[in-house]
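Hey,

Quick one before I head out. I ran the complex with flavin-adenine dinucleotide overnight. Inputs first:
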Amino acid sequence: MDVDAEVDVAIVGAGPAGTSTALHLARFCPALAGSTILIERSAHPRSKLCGGGLVNDVDVLLHNLGLDVGDVPHADAAWANLHYQGRGLRMRLGDIAFHVVRRADLDAWLASRVRDCGIRIRENTLVTNIERTAEGVILETSTGRIRARAVVGADGSKGMVRRMIPGEERRPVARLVEVVTPPRPPKGLTVDDALFEFRNISEGIQGYSWSFPMRTDGELMRNWGIYDSRLVGTSETGSLVNYLKEELARHGLDIADYRVEGHPIRLFMPGAELSTERIILAGDSAGADPLLGEGISLAIGYGELAARALVDGFSSGDLAFAGYTRSVHRSPMGRSLRRRHLAARMIYGLRSSFPQRLIWWRIKPLLRTFIRRGVFSWAVPTVHSKSVSFPPSGPLQPVQGV
Ligand SMILES: Cc1cc2nc3c(=O)[nH]c(=O)nc-3n(C[C@H](O)[C@H](O)[C@H](O)COP(=O)(O)OP(=O)(O)OC[C@H]3O[C@@H](n4cnc5c(N)ncnc54)[C@H](O)[C@@H]3O)c2cc1C
């Protein structure tokens, strides 16, 4: 079959999962990174619907790559307030609760760092079809046909690469909607407080509504939204927008004054396969956090694991990636994801208000410790290790036409 370009690795999607995979490849194995291409349907900076909350694990993961997230314009949420019906737990992870970025800024910054490493990003290129052949994987794109020896599906929750993995369509899909408003904080909180309000669990929402400070073009604003994991069966709820409307009204805002946008998130499931021959998934495509819908730190974490799997696969000549799912599950990130899955099933399965009050009002020290140590803080700081010399078994495929 005629192709326009031939590469060792094609990464579909240049969000945090795709750029992290590329950046980790550049660190672990520059030669393999040199025959890697990222394919992105839009062009950076591109907008992406997201609360933009970056937890402490993002700092650690990027620091391991020699990057400082402080270089991206951001606001800091000084405290996170986890409430049920207006009261609950106040906590932070270190000096602050988390950073808040605009995704257009974060993703464009990561893409620039990828280009700094000499890795090509082919933007404005939509992957429309994927086919596995004896020689590799053929990607049909809007700008030509690419053959890759291995493909990373980092194309997000609505992506197409994951459809190559048998059984993956059974994973739950959470729904989210959000609005951006002027910076007025929720009642009783300050401008740099973040709020997570879990009151709607009792009405069948398997999640929470949020309010984060954020910065847009240097100006302080607020991001409000609602997350419904739909993990425990299907939520018997109506429009998410109505719940968000009620939450905004409680804080003196009228949703009609703002633009409401929604997007799904594909969730992590402990039993789900994340790879098949020549193909591995990373980021939302593999599954985000079922408890909080958090996915940026995980996308970056998946990128590291995907890069390790690629280096191992190309070094051994075995591109079946049979051990990738297990390596994700056994990693500190995978263990955190399994705990989050369990916690989400327990908390969102208990609809009556008595257990919810117990969780958010009474067992605060336990909850705080679980969130600090069981949910977050899984990323391990590393001293920069030497890169792998590659390949031990033969010359690289030439990279053409990219
Ligand atoms: C409303 C909302 C609020 C959120 N808030 C937070 C939060 O505060 N903190 C947090 O950590 N997480 C949050 N998340 C989750 C977070 O946005 C995701 O987990 C994160 O974006 C996953 O990164 P990714 O790289 O896997 O996917 P994406 O960021 O979705 O990137 C995928 C990329 O692939 C490209 N692509 C897709 N299909 C193709 C194709 N066929 N061909 C070429 N390119 C393609 C897309 O254009 C995109 O650039 C939120 C999500 C939503 C919807």
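Residues 152 and 186 are 41 Å apart (CA to CA).

Talk tomorrow,
K.
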